[in-house]
Design brief:
Elements (H helix, E strand, L loop, with lengths): L1 E3 L12 H10 L5 H21 L5 E3 L7 H8 L15 H10 L1 E2 L14 E2 L4 E3 L6 E3 L2 E2 L10 H12 L4 E6 L1 H6 L2 E2 L10 H17 L5 E4 L9 H14 L6 E4 L9 H6 L4 E5 L7 H7 L5 E7 L9 H14 L4 E5 L18 H4 L5 H17 L3 H19 L6 H8 L12 H12 L16 H11 L5 H22 L16 H4 L2 E5 L6 E4 L2 E3 L3 E8 L5 H8 L7 E5 L1 H6 L2 E2 L5 H21 L4 E5 L14 H16 L7 E6 L8 H6 L4 E4 L7 H9 L4 E4 L12 H12 L20 H22 L1
Parallel strand pairs: 1-14, 2-8, 7-9, 8-10, 10-11, 11-12, 12-13, 13-14, 18-20, 19-21, 21-22, 22-23, 23-24
Antiparallel strand pairs: 3-4, 5-6, 15-18, 16-17
Length: about 775
């Protein structure tokens, strides 16, 4: 009666094989057929890992060449009409056009008759409160749906040919609509449910005909504050889908069900998966309310973090539920394992003690299976030995002197009351900063990073391997910095950056220089598309031993009379984009990081740097999914930022950057961060995100992004000019900056210079019009 499964598995491969194949395909180095071969090999390998772990099902439908929501856009026949697809183009080509856009005359359009058209990619935003980005479906009154399941059926056939028992995973219809966006004001995307559900019903029927006995239907919106109409939509949708006769495992994760608990338990499905890590307090109530004939799947192993599970505690929980359910129980990770590395125990960069505390996707599958075996007989020799080994690792972590630093604790306990306050209010600071910087109206800048060329990566890799002496590495990086400064001056940018040639990642770079962090050699997770990050392991108290960026920034400033921004990553982003310790409140860890960044900010100011940017792209992503918990989070998150930024004088200008998030509902808290200048992503939303700042009368200066750096297309200066004029309708021109959406690390120099040249031209035209 006990079954084991996983809600999803990482896609990229242990050596990031999918990333490499994707980027080679986009560069025209391999064919679509070769890319498809890589996909088949990875799926087979990952299913084999699930089978070897002893799971009762392998999961089919979690693989994506870019994003699982993009998969569903094609699966459900809802490609937006604005792309101009005829239906004759290869599906994979259309898929990448939606994901990456088309650059008109600068690329080969897949749309017949539209070779010169510039096509914007789909908007991208965070997947709930994770660091994964999904492509946002677009809906309007003309949207319709039809089933295009050839790819899903082919992947299912692959799994069945390998003799796997396959569970298919889908994003449920209500979550699909919720996570999309209405492109016309006033249009209710929920009105499309009646057209969408029959397509799902058709799909479920066809899956049953292909021998599928379980479909995991992800409805994570059940963990949100659902309006009554959306709750009713779940009832209507699943009442209709019950006609398929398919065993639907309704899956929720990331958040407690709370007022939606009864709704989730009453929906006519075969089973319910709940997140026992994020909402352990609800398990008994769910077990009691879920009808006895339905399966209860418990996400008891953390799918979001890399710490080894407390198997003793998990067993206590599962035994109670097993008794409540009469033995009818499924065991799984809390959510898809997309958010953790494939494996960590044998990672070459980790010492054996630290590695023994950690658990990647493969290890989490083993934990799930061990829990199932222990429920049957925890006294079997191999089971007892495995449980004892886990117990020892947890005890050693709890007692380790590597985790606690008395000096850090002392500093936190003696902080001054106003450590998070600037000396003067913004208007007084603004006057001093304008007098010091002497910038034109509509000042131009970039977000921080410039292209990481093959030469930069090769030099950094050689240095890490010990094949390049430190002095030679420094010379190589200074050469790249000088080149970046020269290019910016030639382009005519007003505020420069050093380009971050020496940085591998905006979080990893700082974590490597802070106490309390460890790093993996191969702990990669997908952020979006082919973009992978290797989050630090934040295992202990955080402090800064020495300056981290001052020498590089001061060197760059010495090359130009123009202002040079010091570039730092903020405490909340470091927190959010790390695998964070789970043995103390996140607010405490954030404050420790903030104090370390504060030390760096003060050192930059002492080195003569007049502008310091503290990036916080993850500030909104850290929001709890329940609005009732927002205030507490935002208070400590905003305070952590202010602590990091408030140690400087009034004439030093503090910038921050945020991207790919909806900000309008937290604008008071963003304003409370009191950054002198905020730069935000707005181009994919056509400046829509900026309107809220205008309605709010945001008091400080703003740099709305005028072009999307995640797409290779180079927009015209007229397009950027249009966006800036749209921005000036809601924000006073004297408060506006001109900049790209985000850093330029992933772009090439040719497209970067072309786009920045257009951006500078647009700013010049704006100034001329004001003269």
């Amino acid at each position: 009666m006990i079954r084991t499964h996983t809600l999803g598995f990482p896609r990229m491969g242990a050596q990031r094989e999918l990333k490499q194949a994707l980027e080679r395909h986009w560069r025209g180095e391999i064919t679509a057929e070769a890319l498809e071969t890589t996909g088949r090999e990875l799926r087979a390998r990952h299913w084999a890992l699930q089978r070897e772990a002893g799971l009762d099902f392998v999961t089919v439908g979690d693989f994506a060449f870019y994003d699982h929501m993009a998969n569903h856009i094609q699966l459900l026949g809802s490609e937006p009409a604005r792309f101009g697809f005829t239906g004759e183009e290869p599906a994979l080509q259309r898929y990448f056009t939606m994901a990456r856009g088309e650059a008109g005359e600068h690329s080969h359009s897949c749309c017949a008759g539209h070779a010169a058209a510039e096509v914007h990619a789909l908007e991208m935003t965070k997947w709930f409160d994770t660091n994964y980005h999904y492509l946002v479906p677009e809906f309007d009154a003309t949207s319709d749906f039809s089933l295009h399941a050839e790819r899903l059926f082919a992947e299912l056939a692959e799994a069945q040919a390998l003799q796997h028992s396959a569970k298919v995973v889908l994003v449920g219809p209500v979550s699909f609509l919720w996570l999309g966006k209405s492109k016309h004001e006033g249009f209710d995307r929920l009105s499309l449910l009646g057209q969408l559900v029959p397509v799902y019903l058709d799909l479920l029927t066809r899956l049953a005909a292909r021998g599928v006995t379980c479909v995991q239907m992800d409805e994570p919106v059940l963990g949100l504050d659902l309006p009554p109409a959306w709750a009713e939509a779940l009832r209507q949708a699943y009442a209709a889908l019950a006609a398929a006769g398919q065993h639907i495992l309704l899956a929720t994760y990331f958040s407690p069900l709370r007022e939606n608990l009864a709704l989730a338990c009453e929906l006519p499905v075969g089973g319910l998966h709940v997140d026992g890590v994020r909402a352990p307090e609800e398990l008994v109530a769910v077990a009691a309310q879920l009808p006895a004939e339905r399966d209860l799947s418990v996400g008891i192993v953390d799918g979001r973090n890399i710490w080894r599970a407390d198997l003793d505690q998990a067993l206590l929980t599962l035994r109670k539920l097993q008794w409540q359910r009469g033995g009818r129980l499924w065991i799984a990770p809390s959510c898809s394992l997309l958010h953790v590395p494939i494996s960590l125990r044998e990672d070459a960069a980790l010492d054996s003690e630290l590695a023994s505390w950690l658990s990647g996707a493969v290890e989490k599958l083993a934990e799930v299976k061990l829990l199932e075996r222990a429920l049957w007989d925890c006294h079997r020799l191999e089971v007892a030995a495995a449980l004892a080994g886990s117990r020892r690792a947890l005890a050693k972590r709890a007692a380790s002197s590597r985790v606690q630093n008395p000096e850090v604790a002392e500093r936190l306990s003696t902080l001054p009351a106003k450590i998070d306050q600037r000396h003067s209010p913004f208007p007084a600071r603004q006057a001093l900063q304008r007098d010091r910087l002497r910038l034109p109206v509509y000042p131009t800048t970039t977000i921080g990073s410039f292209p990481q060329t093959a030469e930069i990566r090769a030099a950094r890799a050689a240095y890490k391997r010990g094949q390049l002496a430190e002095a030679d590495y420094r010379d190589a990086m200074q050469h790249e910095i000088a080149e970046a400064v020269a290019r910016q001056e030639a382009l005519g940018l007003d505020v420069l950056v050093h380009g971050e040639a020496e940085r591998n990642d905006m979080v990893e770079y700082f974590g490597e220089q802070l106490e309390g962090f460890a790093f993996t050699a191969n702990g990669w997770v997908q952020s979006y598309g082919s973009r992978c990050v290797k989050p630090p392991v934040l295992f202990g108290d955080v402090s800064r031993a020495k300056p981290m960026t001052v020498d590089w920034t001061a060197y760059a400033q010495g090359l130009t009379p123009k202002p040079m921004k010091g570039m730092l990553t903020g405490p909340i982003t470091i927190l959010q984009w790390s695998f964070v310790r789970d043995d103390q409140p996140r607010a405490t860890t954030a404050l420790q990081i903030a104090l370390a960044i504060r030390d760096e900010v003060q050192d930059l100011e002492r080195a003569g740097i007049a502008i310091i940017q503290i990036d916080e792209p993850a500030i909104r992503e850290g929001l709890p999914l329940r609005r009732s918990e927002w205030r507490a989070y935002l208070q400590w998150a905003a305070r952590a930022f202010r602590v990091s930024a408030s140690g400087v004088g009034d004439a030093t200008q503090i910038h921050t950057h945020m991207c790919y998030s909806e900000f309008n509902d937290i604008l008071p808290e963003i304003a409370s961060m009191d950054a002198d200048v905020i730069t935000i992503e707005t181009s994919r939303s056509d400046m829509e995100l900026l309107r809220g700042f205008g309605d709010f009368n945001y008091p400080n200066e703003i740099g709305p992004g005028v072009y999307d750096i995640h797409s290779p297309r180079v927009p015209s200066s007229s397009e950027m000019l249009r966006l800036m004029k749209k921005a000036a309708e809601v924000i006073p021109p004297e408060q506006l900056w001109v900049n790209p959406d985000c850093g330029l690390k992933t772009r090439g120099w040719v497209e970067t210079e072309a786009a920045l040249r257009q951006m500078v031209a647009a700013a010049k035209e704006l100034r001329d019009e004001m003269a």
